[in-house]
Every structure is written in structure tokens, then in C-alpha cells.
Amino acid sequence: MSDTADIVIIGGGIMGSATAYFLAAATTGRRRIVVLEPDPTYARASTPKASGVVRHQYGVPENILMSLYGSAFFRQAPELLEVDGERAEIGFGERGYVWLVTPEILPAVAAMHEVQLEHGADVTFVPADRLGARLPRYRTDGLAGAFFGGSGAGWLDPWGLLQAFRRKASALGAEYIQDSATGLAHSGRRIAAVSTAGGRRIAAGHVVNCAGAMGAARICAMAGLALPVEPRKRSVFLADCREDVRDFPMTVHPSNGVWFRPEGKSLLCGVAPAADKDPATEDDTVDYGFFDDVVWPTMAALVPAFAALKVSRAYAGHYDFNTLDENAILGTPATLDNFLIATGFSGHGIMQSPAAGRAITELILHGRYQTLDLTRFGYDRIIRNAPLPEPACF
């Protein structure tokens, strides 16, 4: 089946659907936008299994600005993504983000804090002698203080946001096709067409690779590009507590990066594996040992009430992990004129999806960034082996 589209987006998860929304909103039906998504249930996709956390506590300015843009968008999302009078329900709450620090990591995190303030983030440092008053249920001995993310920091419902983007993009004219890309036809410096498993051949004005953890590297290989993005498994646990935990902020522990936040009356929690125990894998078996050996002991040592936690549910999802520097890869490679990449977010994708979708839209329609200059996240840094990492604090 031969077909033609102005823009083909490969992957309909959070990044592909955010891009489809911004493109459809900007073109108002003047361009045909096709989104290829093989599984509309998103059973193995990264988005529904994400923590949904929104923070501005980064050291790379582009990460701060993208997340600030995301927070502003999420506040307006119920109206912006409304369809047929039905407001979008994304569950965004600015409930705070607390990064606890020890004396050892305080200088590095304080340097990041200066960059955050310079770029407009609402982050406040509370020293150890005042920490107990702010966090009365926490054990604060051994801590140097904490950095509190204020306005715009918190969490949302990733599934609700994905469905809201998808519904609104469709209402604005974007077409979702249940199919997967199997080949890219080249014509000089352009990708002329996308072939699919369903037997389609779609001639394309632009092609956007939003295939995420499981597919982005494969799609780039079809375009003749090496992409340092691979799936890394993250186990997430829903734990019940005897005490009311609904007023806890999102919290990150300084010793190992264990994190937790309320999810209804329970706690959502997890930790990234150590680098030498974090292989590329598509396996989605939950690693319960992380809870028993790392997450639970860390949380119980910090909050006495957490000694009685009990896991009620757990699941595993995958990061689209950029092995070069764990940051987004955005934009058009130098060797191609109409092929764009939006992947490698390494766990930042939900909060940065509005900024990324807007950025790709600007590159397609205007040939340059207009809202945020994200040039430093371009593919050329991969070729130059010039990583742009966040400061190491754990």
C-alpha cells in the first residue's frame, strides 16, 4: 500500500504523541501527520510505567529549562488538551521534590543549585539545623540539609498525560496507525519513505524517530546512524504503610538515590541499579531484591514509620538510556535533512515531553529552535564523543 504523509512519527508513546500534538496544533490540518504505533495498549511501553516525577533540580541548563517549560505546560494541560469539552485529567500536583544531601555531596549539589536559580527554578536550601522542622517524620542526623523544589515540582499521571496528548493530537487531525516501521528508503540526504510491517510504504516529507527504549537505535540504524541508546530496566514498587503517607514530598536519599513519593495512600519507590549491575535488557521481570536489599532498608532508616512497609504491587519498565551522557538526543543529524531524533531521555522523558515536542515541531516548521535553544542536545555530540552529563552526586 503506497501512501504519502508530510510527517511520519515512528513511535506513539509520550515523545511521539507530544510531538504529534504540537505539530497538529501548529499546522491546524494543513499537513498530514501520521504516527506509527504498533501497540495502542502500550503494554510494554516505557510511559505507563514511569514515576511521573517533575523536577527542576539539574546541573545542565537545558534540562532545567525543558522541565520548567514542562511544568508550565502541565498547569495548563487540562484546558490545552481538552477534547469536545472534556478536560484532560493528568493528575499534576506541585507537591514538592526534596533532595537530601550529606556533607560529602553538598558542594556538588550546591553548585547545581546556583545554576538552577540562575535559570529561574524555585529551589531552596534548608540546612541541617532547620531540617527537622520541615521534615518532622524524617531522621535527619548525618545530613547536611536538603534542597526543596517548590513551584512546578511534583508529579503527574504518565498514562493520563499520554492519553491526553494522543486524544488531542487525533482531534487536531493527526492519524495513528497500528503498525511498525521496518525500513527507511533513502534518496540522497533525505529519507524518502517509511516501510512498515503491515505492508505500507509511506512517502514522507519528514521522519521523526520517537521509537524509545526498544526501537530508537534500530530506526537510526536504518537511517545509517549509530545511536547509543539502549533499554535499561527499572523496577518500581508500590508499598503500603500503616501510617498516612499522603503528605510526604517526592524524596531522594543521598546515599544511593533511593526515591519515594506518595501514590494515593501508598508509596511508589525504587532505585537505579549500580552501573556495573545495569545491563541493556528487554526483560521486564521485577527485581524484588532491590526492594528487600536497598530500597526498604534505606527508607526505614530515614523514616521510622517505613519499617513496616509491605509491597502490594510491583512492575518493571525501561529507560531509553543514552549511554554517552544520560541526556536527550534531539534534532537532525548533519548527514540527513529530513530525519529527526527525539530519544535518549534516560528517565527525564515525561517531564521534558512538552519541551521536546515543541522543539521538534519548531525544527520541522521553521528550521531552527525558537522557544528553547537545545542545540547542545544535538546528535553531533554523539559523533564528536562529547558528552554533556549531569554532575555525578551519588
Q: For the report, how would you describe the main beta sheet?
A: 8 strands, mixed
Give the C-alpha Rg: 21 Å
- CA-CA gap between termini: 52 Å
H-E string: EHEEHEHEHEEHEEEEHEEEEHEEEHH
SSE map:
Layout: E1 2-10, H1 14-27, E2 33-36, E3 53-54, H2 61-80, E4 97-101, H3 106-118, E5 123-127, H4 128-134, E6 145-149, E7 154-155, H5 158-171, E8 175-177, E9 181-187, E10 190-196, E11 201-209, H6 212-222, E12 229-240, E13 250-252, E14 259-263, E15 266-270, H7 288-302, E16 310-322, E17 329-331, E18 339-343, H8 349-366, H9 380-383
Parallel strand pairs: 1-2, 1-11, 2-8, 4-13, 11-18
Antiparallel strand pairs: 3-7, 4-6, 5-6, 9-10, 10-11, 12-15, 12-16, 13-14, 14-15, 17-18
Short description:
This protein has helices at 14-27, 61-80, 106-118, 128-134, 158-171, 212-222, 288-302, 349-366, 380-383; strands at 2-10, 33-36, 53-54, 97-101, 123-127, 145-149, 154-155, 175-177, 181-187, 190-196, 201-209, 229-240, 250-252, 259-263, 266-270, 310-322, 329-331, 339-343. It is an alpha/beta fold and 394 residues long.
Distinctive features:
eight-stranded mixed β-sheet, 18 strands, 394 residues, globular, alpha/beta
Outline the structure in words:
The radius of gyration is 21 Å and the shape is globular. The model has no long low-confidence stretch (mean pLDDT 97). α1 (14-27) packs parallel to α8 (349-366) and α2 (61-80) crosses α8. It is of the alpha/beta class and 394 residues long. 29% of the residues lie in helices and 26% in strands. α1 (14-27) links the parallel β1 and β2. The longest helix has 20 residues, at 61-80.
